[in-house]
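Researcher: Next sequence.
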Amino acid sequence: SQAIISGSFSLTRQAVQLGYLPRMEIVHTSASEIGQIFVPVVNRLLAVASIAVVIAFGSSSRVAGAYGVALTTTMLITTLLAAIVARRIWHWPVLAVAAVTVAFLVPDLAFFAAAVVKIPDGGWFPLVMALGVLGVMTSWRRGRAALGARVGSGFPLDKLIDEIEAKRLHRVEGTAIYLTGDGQEAPRALLHNLKMIGVAHRRNLFLTVRTAEEPYIAESDRLAVETIRPGWHRLVATWGFAEDPDVPTLLDRPEVRALGVGPAGRTFVLGRTQLVASPRPVLPAWRRGLYLFLARNATEADRFFRLPPGQVLDIGQVIEF
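Model: Next structure:
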């Protein structure tokens, strides 16, 4: 149904924004309506899954068991999640949450118990699909955490800037914009740039993109700017999980232009990581293999953040994983 297709697109984008799936191409189909999106990868997966279901089950009567298990499990999970929202976000009293939840759980559990017996007759299919999606999301999440632990803590940014200023390194004209996950540590792209070339730009921006656990963020809360030293600035941009980061538009804001940063002379410096198999892996073989596959097929940062192609500089690094 159209609802399932649209819901799959929206949930995939939110999972990407929250860091549970790798970056992937998201096409906006409307210039005026937010949320009207198309995700080509998800669309192809839905097509393959739909064809596989038709071939495997053969008739709508044989797929009834799968439909029943999927529907009743969704109802049960929704009730439990609603209880969590009511308690943690709406701050309902415990007794009120318990009363409402039990009122819904009674019929939900009755329907679920009736559907469980259909698991051998096709009800296994949505459970297997759900376990597959769970495996992908947890592997990506744990893989990112393991990669961060393997790379280790970086060099403090403030200390590095002090050393650059003290050594009076040669400075070239223009603005370098480093995308970094942690604004307190020096980006590895900057460290490699200094090691290999030994020069720094006249102006340097360290941009951290964060995703809030809210769908939308007010424009007044979009960007925070901090001047570390003259010519060195830390930027923290926040988008909601239902929004798409647009870095070039962000950099056109008045608070960024006040730093002397205009469209001309900007260079987006990105760190490109190449992962190779390590003889001492930190993850199980199947999970590491899945993470490496997802990482190789993820949309590159320059496309995801809509960076101008002619203003991007990639600095690569090989890491055993």
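Model: The CA atoms of residues 199 and 208 lie 23 Å apart. The chain has a mean pLDDT of 89.
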